[in-house]
Amino acid sequence: MKKVSLADVARAAGVGKATASRALSASPHADVRAETREHVRRVAERLGYRPSRTAQALRTGRHHTLGLVVPLESWAWWAPVLQGATAEANRLGYQLLIHPLNAQLGLAGTLEELSHLSLDGLVIVTPETLEASDMPPASGARPTVLIDDVLAAPPCVAVRSDSRSGGAQVARHLLARGRRRPLVIAPAGEAAFIDERIAGFREGLAEAGVTLDDAAILVSDEAFDQPRPDASRLAQRLLAQAPFDAVFALTDYLAASTLGALRHAGYRVPGDVSVVGFDDERIARVVDPALTTVRQPMDELGVRSSP
After folding, report:
1. Is 168 in the same domain as 283?
2. SS3 track for the chain
3. What is the CA radius of gyration of the chain?
4. By CB atoms within 10 Å of each CB, which of 7, 20, 66, 251 scores lowest?
5. Distance separating alpha carbons of residues 158 and 160, to the nearest angstrom
6. Which of 281, 298, 183 lies closest to 241 in space, CA to CA?
7. What is the extent of the structural domain holding 217?
8. Which residues are CB-neighbours of 185 under 8 A, at least 6 positions away?
9. Distance between CA 82 and CA 303 in Å, rounded?
């Protein structure tokens, strides 16, 4: 079957080839009326016309292709981000080239590899470890967006949720249920989201005159990919902090571990202790009892990161 050309569309629509080209452009042209644009697009769809990416690139200098760098981690929290970014890129006429982060090369090496590809921009999903020095300079020729809540001062445009506000919401939720002796369980390491969620939680507690001592913040060294969390070890750490009536786990994975540890220690949830997580990941929907959590709009982060 012969491939439908732009000339075929123009002939069937009764317009010139230049007008058809402008009507089918991703961005509206002021010299093409809206009704003409819609008419040409309907004709193109009926004929099954597909524009030549190569011809467009030669004409505009743009390839309408974005690179999305994702970390190869066992805990694929970024899957909804990918879905949102893909849907928005397609809506805007872009293709998304998904590129896994090369663990041996690191982020800087992976970006060097991608520098040889014809991409109009890059979207980078935060890997487990990220240093500002790994990122390309903000003045680089290729626009770069970072979906990140690790770096306190990202070197380029970054899309992230408001972790501080989320932490404050958790505090108000617990206070409304009469909980005034909370603990916090945080992941190990340094990351902006850890500091922001704790800071917001403290601010929310302070509104009711409740303070959170540093001793009430437990740092967990549990890895996301370990087959089974050590409930007894975490239970012992929790018991050493008694009395407490609430636990704010800074991630849903830690919240799930906390539920098991509290059960191991003889606590009833939510009867004796309230537990709140953060992120609203898939694990929040399968634990027992059901987990109260702050939802991060992962799909929306992907949408906002696209051009």
Report:
1. yes
2. CCCCCHHHHHHHHCCCHHHHHHHCCCCCCCCCCHHHHHHHHHHHHHHCCCCCHHHHHHHHCCCCEEEEEECCCCCCCCHHHHHHHHHHHHHCCCEEEEEECCCCCHHHHHHHHHCCCCCCEEEEECCCCCCHHHCCCCCCCCCEEEECCCCCCCCCEEECCCHHHHHHHHHHHHHHCCCCCEEEEEECCCCHHHHHHHHHHHHHHHCCCCCCCHHHEEEECCCCCCCCCCHHHHHHHHHCCCCCCEEEECCHHHHHHHHHHHHHHCCCCCCCCEEEEEECCHHHHCCCCCCEEEECCHHHHHHHHCC
3. 25
4. 7
5. 6
6. 183
7. 163-296
8. 217, 218, 219, 220, 247, 248, 249, 250, 254, 255, 258
9. 9
Amino acid of residue 269: V
pTM for the whole thing? 0.72
175 in the same domain as 154? no
User: What tokens appear for 75 in the block?
Assistant: 């805990």
Q: pLDDT tens, 167-226? A: 999 999 999 999 999 999 998 888 889 999 999 999 999 999 999 999 999 998 766 555
How many domains, in total, are found in the chain? 3
Amino acid identity at 66: L
Paired strand residues for 220: 187
Per residue in 21-71, pLDDT (tens digit) is: 888 776 677 788 888 888 988 888 888 887 655 445 434 445 578 888 888
Sequence-distant (≥ 6) Cβ neighbours of residue 169 within 8 angstroms = 200, 204, 294
Structure tokens at 300: 């929306």
Residue type, 267: Y
- For 29, the token pair is 């042209």
Which strands form 95-100's sheet, in the order they lie side by side? 95-100, 65-70, 121-125, 144-147, 157-159
